[in-house]
């Protein structure tokens, strides 16, 4: 699942030598003896760190929980970081085009996580590119990271494999928790503001009752039609859904209205996201915390 990204953006590399005032501003390099790695978001950066340990120097292009990767524009320094990286990890699927447009060096390995996942769109539906909520994909990604780091640093290959196996075991623990949710709550109706967490909730057997027109419009930064908003608000009335999952990074007046309606109806709200929350640098702990909240919401009387 490696592919070389097109080298069509040499201009970005030239711009990386200047700061906003036009002055020369060399980007800092990785620590000596480490493998330079670039990830499009800190979610993938956390996986690389978990596998690579102290033998990697990871740059996550987006590490701000307030940032929206869909609309992010990479600064010139990002091009320099990608150009010197030995491994680049991008989500793919049109999600982080800003990273895919940057040109890595000729010896760099590139992992497109969507391509690696093997996931596809449901019949008659659109592909969900938020693959970091697919636990099997994250386990597969750890193995691919270990293989690529081992190529760049053969002496570290045994450590990378050991770390990837340990990470995979932690993912297996999360999968067991999701399986327990499925056993207890399969068929339970939920609502979402965006399709971000659906790989996780689908694996738990939960049924997304949100009108597709609503979550798709929010994802595309558009206002859903009034009738669609009304139908979404109805999910919290006569026969309310069990929980609302909110993408904390793309709040709008409409999603705030939905969240307020849910809370007023006594429906719990669980936050999901596209990057790690402030103060968190561990993927498994992040997902585990969301599963804690989801389990509490589903188990309530």
Describe what this molecule looks like in 3D.
This protein has helices spanning 10-15, 42-52, 76-84, 97-100, 113-117, 135-152, 157-185, 198-203, 212-219, 226-233, 253-264, 283-299, and strands spanning 35-41, 56-62, 87-90, 109-112, 189-192, 207-208, 244-247, 269-272. By secondary structure, it is α/β, with parallel strands linked by helices. The chain has 2 domains: 10-173, Rossmann fold, CATH 3.40.50.1980; 186-299, Rossmann fold (3-Layer(aba) Sandwich). The chain has a 4-stranded parallel β-sheet with strand order 2-1-3-4, with helices on both faces. The protein is globular, with a radius of gyration of 20 Å.
Main sheet record:
4 strands, parallel
Beta-strand percentage range = 5-15%
What's the level 1 CATH class of the largest domain? Alpha Beta
Please give the count of helices: 12
Instruction: Write down the CATH topology of the largest domain.
Output: Rossmann fold
The helix/strand order is: HEHEHEHEHHHEHEHHEHEH
Q: Give the CA-CA distance, first to last residue.
A: 46 Å
Task: Please give the domain count.
Answer: 2
Number of strands: 8
Strand order of the largest sheet: 2-1-3-4
The shape is globular
**Low-confidence spans: pLDDT under 50, at least 5 residues?**
1-27
CATH superfamily of the largest domain: Nitrogenase molybdenum iron protein domain
CATH architecture type of the largest domain: 3-Layer(aba) Sandwich
Radius of gyration over C-alpha positions, nearest whole angstrom: 20 Å
The chain-level mean pLDDT equals 89
Q: Level of helix content?
A: 40-55%
Organism: Pseudonocardia charpentierae
Pfam family, one: ZnuA
Signal peptide: 1-19
Protein name: Zinc ABC transporter substrate-binding protein
